[in-house]
Sequence to fold (339 residues):
Amino acid sequence: MLGKQKLGIRILMGVLGALLLLIPFAGCAAEAPGKGPIVFADLGWDSAQVHNRIATFILENGYGYPKSEMVPGETIPLFAGLSRGDIDVSMEIWVANQQEAYDKSIAAGDVVDLGDNFWDNWQGWLVPTYVIKGDPARGIEASAPDLKSIDDLPKYWELFKDPEDPTKGVFYSCIAGWECEKINEEKFKEYGLDEYYNVFLSGSGAALAGSMVGAYEKGEPWFGYYWAPTWILGKLDMTPIEEPPYNETVWDTNHACAYPAVHVNICVNTEWSEKNPKVVEFLTKYVTTTAQVNKALAYMQETEASTEEAAIYFLQEFESTWTKWVPSDIAEKVKAALP
Fold:
């Protein structure tokens, strides 16, 4: 009897041991190779963050990837992370704004450029239109009716007076750490505007937007840098300040001309891309327009929606666009997951 009990215990222990050995393999089967969390560069402006969440909703609900990771930060540090492999995907690389770092990483084979996310973008210097034309409906008279180009800015510096330094005007430049910080400073020197204006660097996208909106709501003058697609330029009536037309030679020498039309591309880490070919195929087909993104951003601002909710809005509003990025079976899974 005792022998039979010992034999039964041995059999039971063997079965349990075999089951324990199988548990890790069952876990691996649930997460196939190449389906670890994807790490996105969560750049400091809304359009990039919305694109991240559009892509992650599709990847998680269509392709079965686990919840993605978002690494917040600014342009150059996050691109360095992409090159090192700390980050897998960046959905908005404004190539000309980080040309040197981009060229170096592409040449080294650390980063793969998958092509345009959207191409019909704009960036430059601008003022509220009421500064030039007035706004009778708001009782605002034109304060700089002759303001058209950079040549006119010296005589209007007092209109944009710096509250911290009343001897100069103030120009609200891009976010500290962005490549356009250096570009704008160089432009000011080449145009001779540094004699008349101080350059103020915003600490974040929200701070820069807040300075523009705050001035606009009060009907006050504002002079600064901004870009599209953004909800602000879809909602506020702003007028660009003319610069000399873009010239590649001039741009490469001292940036003393208008910003070029910039490629806003999707880039991925090379080593990661080799392990995730289906995702690369999807991201290569991922193409939007400034008008579409402006609409999603305007929805986000008007309804106080989160970036996740704006991504859902985009997927609901532009189904005919995003369903072209993925196979039909993937598209059906994504549509089923939408609220």
Notes: The chain has two domains: 39-121+262-337, 122-254.
